[in-house]
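Figure S4 source data
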Amino acid sequence: MTVSYTTRFWTLFIINLVISIALAYTGYWLLMAVLGLIIGYVLNANKASSALVCTGVSGLIGVLVVIFMNPYAIYDGEVTAAIIGLPYSIIGSITLLIITLLVALALSSLGGLIGHYLRMLIRH
């Protein structure tokens, strides 16, 4: 019995989200690139944008959830912003949050894209 593409997409999205939350919570969030590689390979998408969305968005949401699990996340971000020379306010904290989320998006989505293209190279 074959599984439809939509079912496979959402199943892998949720699996990636849960594992990304676990990796980010334990401090190994850089390993989301390897997870994205595996998910991108297994997804078997026709378009690279599907692999990008499936791996990138779930990795981004996973890191965001873990950041906001810490009740002092905004305050810690303000202190870090002051240390590195950003404005000591909510602006500096949000700047660091955006930079962190962009790195998480890049790591997980690039892993997914590489996995997608590896599957295409191996199939042909």
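Figure S5 source data
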Amino acid sequence: MTVFDRVKELANKQSISIVELEEKLGFGRNSLYSWKKKTPNGDRLTKVADFFGVSTDYLLGRTNDKTALSPKEIEDIGQMADRMINGLESENSVNFYGEPMSDEDKASLKTALLVALEMNKKRSKQKD
């Protein structure tokens, strides 16, 4: 399946034509059709992936997981987890059995938060 085939499939699921998609994204007419034979540049590929809420890896056929997270989504989740941990620390409420948490325990908690946030983001993408 080519990049174009995947884009066409996603467009069909949203009941829009390739021409409409090109217009919405500000692409030239028939530019997406060229993807039948060549790989698009990164910027355009990212723009299409963001429009459909899928990863560029999905469009390129590297994965069949439409809910794979983009690097930006992963970065956003990391920042959210950092804010959550920092918020807990600033309130002196990060305790483990009544004792302040060690740096190792905080790192473990952050890892657990990252996993939970990523799972939640993927579930929300599946609903779309």
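The chain has a mean pLDDT of 84. Helices lie at 3-13, 18-25, 42-52, 56-60, 71-90, 103-127.
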